[in-house]
Amino acid sequence: MPIYNKLVRDFIPQIIEGKGKKCIVEELSEQELLQKMKQKFIEEAYEVNEAKNREEMKEELADLLELIHTALEVYNISLKELEESRLAKAEKSGRFSKGIYLVEVLDE
Predict the structure, then answer these.
(1) Angle at the Cα of 29 from the Cα atoms of 27 and 66, rounded to 5 degrees
(2) Are 30 and 74 spatial neighbours (Cβ–Cβ below 8 Å)?
(3) Does 30 map to a domain?
């Protein structure tokens, strides 16, 4: 039987059991959830990197967005606050839309 040791969506145990299988789960404390969410962000980022088409990218971005929403709840940050922070960073440093790739900074 595979061992996963990872954060999963809330209904995954019921989905597994609905297929006639059993699973062992733990309910994480808030502190443990914060740690496991950070690991899950990295896992999902790798999956975004591996996405081969629009549909796969959409699914992986949805997972990242769900993690973001969960992090907002846990850290008590409103979506409005997040958007304000995003806009402030965009105003100060720009976005990523122009595809600028920094190769090197030379000291003069």
Answers:
(1) 75
(2) yes
(3) yes
Instruction: Please count the structural domains in the chain.
Output: 1
User: Range of 40's domain?
Assistant: 12-79
3-state helix, strand, coil in the chain (%, to 5): 60, 0, 40
61, part of any domain:
yes
What is the pLDDT at residue 69?
Answer: 95
Query: pLDDT tens digit string along 35-93?
Result: 999 999 999 999 999 999 999 999 999 999 999 999 999 999 999 999 999 999 999 99
Cβ within 8 Å of residue 22, ≥6 positions away = 16
